[in-house]
Here is the input.
Amino acid sequence: MSIFHRNDGFGGCSGCGRRSRRQEDHQCTPGFTFKPIGPFTAIDRRSTQSPCPPACDIQTRTFTNPANIVIPDSGPATPYPSPITVSGMTGNIVQVTVRLINLSHEYPDDIDIMLVGPSGQNATIMSDVGGSDDVTNITLTLDDLAPTAMPGNNTLFTGTFKPTNAGAVFDNFPDAPSPSGGSMLSSFNFTDPNGTWNLYVIDDEGSDSGSIAGGWELTITTSNCTP
Here is the structure.
């Protein structure tokens, strides 16, 4: 008896136990191993290994620091940075999203936020957006896959946006790693998620203040698949 399977692109097996008409499908026999040769598979009758490779382990977990982040009228927030410790995840990062919960500020354009991962990578995920209009208790979800960036000069509102740095120059985060210049959360892809993540928040102008009253959340997806 022969079993056909299709490589799902992540090292796993889709459709095991049924035949597919796609040319790239591999044929294998229980009790034998196989090696791809072009789009097909050669059977090795000397082995007793299962013909279908193990499926990938995909994990998604959310970690939270609910402590209020107080943003002064100028300078670093309190606490600075705000940490989240990640542990127990396997594989490397394939996606990261960040939520800023109950953000209020009298002049959102003043807010600069940089995320630093355990391996040292960083991204300025919010800077020079939202203009001068007050916001109260909005929640921003930052996701590379969001359809739009945060507005540069218009009023911010609760929603999902791409991480956005609308400024023309690098922001200065005191006592923090030098900004890489990037804003996308894909900067953390293919790194180990475990360890301490730090959120650096500053107000880069005077007179106006705010807070992230609900703290922040970090959602990480990892995979142990071999590219």
User: Anything to note?
Assistant: The mean pLDDT is 82. The two ends are 31 Å apart (CA to CA). The first strand starts at residue 3 and ends at 7.
